[in-house]
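Example record for the data management plan.
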Amino acid sequence: MPATDRNPRTAALGAAALALGLTAALTGCSGGTADDPDVVTVYSADGLRLESGDGFFDKVFADFEKETGIRVEYVEGGSGEVVQRLTRESANTQADVLVTLPPFIQQAQGRGLLAPYEPAGAEKVPEDAKDPDGSWTAVVDNYLCFIYNTEQLEEPPETWDDLLAPEYEGRLQYSTPGVAGDGTAVMLKAMHDFGGLEPAMEYLGDLQANNVGPSSSTGALAPKVDKGELLIANGDVQMNFANMESMPSQGIFFPAAEEGEAPSTLSLPYSAGVVQGAPHTENARLFLDHLLSKEVQEQVSEVGGGFPVRTDVEPDGANADRLAEIMDGVEVFSPDWVEVDENFDAYVSAWEEATGS
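Corresponding structural encoding:
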C-alpha cells in the first residue's frame, strides 16, 4: 500500500474536547488496585466482552480468576482510545495488559508503552502475527466486515459504489479512522481496493453524503443497525457474529471493489502485550499465557465468535462452521502494518481533509 505524496486555537480546543471524550467513553474501572497483588487490569478494544455476560472475555476472566485467584479489572474503549488513555497515564501507569487492533498495537509499541514478553504458546503463532521482539502477539484472529439490517434490506450492497445509493443517506455510518481500529480498517480497505490513497479519499469524500458522522467505537453501531436506525455500518466478524443472538437483525457482508470481483477484507487480529511499568507485571504475563493456552484458543470460535491464532488449534463446532461459511469466497489481504504505522498521521489527515471531519 503506497504512502502519500485549523486554526491553532480551534485545534487545541478540539484536542481538549477529544481527551475529555475519550475518558468519558471508556468503560470499566481502574485505579485503586495497584497495591492489590491479586489483580490484573486489562485495557481492551471493544468486541470481546458482551453486555449479556456470556462473551469470550467473560469466560476468560472467570476461568483465569478460578485458576489463579487473580481478579481481572476491565477497561474498554475504541482501539485507539485505549492506547490514548495508556499514553496519558504513562507517568502513573494503571494498566497491566493492552488488547487492541492494528495499527494501534504497533502505535503503542512505538510509544514505548509495551514491555517485551513472549507468552507460553507464542511459538504456535505465525511470525507475521506477532512482534519479532516480543512486544505483542495476536490472541484472536479477526476480519473487517460491514453489517446491514436484514429486516429492511433483502440483500446487502455488493460493491463500494452501491454504498453511494441515495437510499442510504443518513442511514449509513462507519467508525472514525484514527480512533477506532475497524474505522481505520475501512480506510485501509478503500486504499487497497481503489489502488492508493488519492482515489480512496475521493471515494470516501463522496460517501460522506450518506455518512451519519463520527463514532469513536465500532461496537456502538451494531445496536443501531439491529434496531433499524442505520441500514449499513462497519464492524468486524468476531464482534458482530458474537452479538448476533442478542441483535438478530444484522447480517454480515463484504463489499467488493467493483461489480464482478470477489468480496475482500483485511486481517484485523486482536493483539495483546504487557504494559511497560505495569503495577502487576507477573499477573499480566500469566494472563497472556492463559489467553494463548491451547484450552482457551479452542474456545475462541465457539464462545467468542472469532478465529484462533494458534496453528495447532483447528476450530470445530457449529459456530466454527458458520464462521467458515461467512468467510467462504472472501479474499483476505494483510496490510503492511509497519508501513501503515509510519504513515498513520498522513493517512488520517488525508481522510479528515477529504471528508471534512
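Summary line stored alongside the record: Residues 256 and 263 are 4 Å apart (CA to CA).
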